[in-house]
Amino acid sequence: MLALELLNEMCVNHDVFLIIINNAYNLNLLKQLDKRVKVIFVKRKAGTRNPIPLIKFNLILYKIKPDIIHCHEPNVSRLIRYRQGKTVYTIHDVGIPTDNYNLFDDLVAISDAVHNDVVSRCQLPVSTIYNGIPMDFFQTRTMYSLVKGQQIRMVQLSRLMHEKKGQDILLRALKIIKDNHFSDFALDFIGTGESQPYLENLVEELELKSHVNFLGEQTRNWLFDNLSQFHLLVQPSRYEGFGLTILEGFAAGLPVLASNIDGPAEILKNIPAGYLFNRESIDDCAAMLMKIFTIYQNGQMSELMNKTIPLIKQKYSLKSCAQKYLDKYHRLTNTGSKVAVLNAG
Question: Cα–Cα distance between 158 and 165 in angstroms, integer?
Fold first, then answer.
């Protein structure tokens, strides 16, 4: 999502190409690209040893002559033979192998947590540019009062991959809440992934079927228009380099509950409507959910959100993020570079 939104922001004043190397992509995401972004498909089969797609890829680079080749996958560095452009790699998560980092001209971490992880494992210079989102695109919740018996609507927005994203922790916490005689809640999962069958079975096992819905993948426009209909965004990840969905929740005017791990904690510290629970603690997750429900019921959430939104807009706007990348491009090329290639491997 960061790549897509940077492309849409940068194409206003620059020539921008998206090169998709492997024959694997999401059409719904591509439909959300600005028409000014030039999309090129290499159509390489994942894992193939056929050199022709890689030759095609480099011929594309020689044809468009980019000033900047911006990569979001580290192994792409070994495929590039075009040496006239500067290469930038954005590191999106902790624990990514550093073997190819020395092949890039510049490294960017998306958070302090990712930065600290990288410098602890390699000696290369790394800068930090916080992820940003187009906050002005989101409809924003403004009403935080609840009538007696009204459901509190929660949303979990991410790939359904419970080993990383921790959706099972959230479900088990909701079971505790329901068993303690509070049932005025609903949870919608937005996203798809390999854990969906497991999570659907867990919902059945925990007797939460009347409270939980799987809405599948939704477009960015759907999120812009509908995320504000919820009361709370929950991100119960077991590990996370940043947490872009946390910012999306705030942009839509929602308080956010996340696990107390480096990336989310970095965002949520000192944020009035940001809440953390102990990593992988089902009991603590349940306790924090009940705390947030009580804040809503007591009519205190509006004040907290009014303090939160300006802080988030100041630090995490997409325009600020894009401008920091453009400033970096200019420093690397020593010119007013007009072509940036964002390269999805």
Answer: 7
- The CA-atom distances, in angstroms, between 160 and each of 130, 163, 167, 338 are 24, 9, 7, 38
Domains of the chain: which residue ranges? 2-132+317-344, 135-316
Q: H-helix or E-strand containing 216?
A: strand 212-216
CA angle, 206 then 207 then 213, to 5°: 95
Superfamily of domain 2-132+317-344, CATH level 4: Glycogen Phosphorylase B; (3.40.50.2000)
At residue 173's C-alpha, the angle toward residues 172 and 175, to 5°, is 65
Q: Which tokens go with 318? A: 């997409």
**Quick check: 208 and 171 in contact, CB under 8 A?**
yes
Rounded distance, CA 264 to CA 173, Å? Answer: 19
Distance CA 235, CA 250 (A): 12
Domain 135-316 has CATH 3.40.50.2000: yes
**Scanning the structure block, which residue is given the tokens 């924003």?**
140
pTM of the model: 0.78
* Torsion-angle region of 35 (φ positive above 0: left; ψ -120 to 50: alpha; else: beta): alpha
155-204 residue pLDDT tens: 999 999 999 999 999 999 999 999 998 999 999 999 999 999 999 999 99
pLDDT digits (tens, 9 = 90+) for 54-84: 999 999 999 999 999 999 999 999 999 998 9
Torsion of CA 131, 134, 138, 141, to 10 degrees: 50
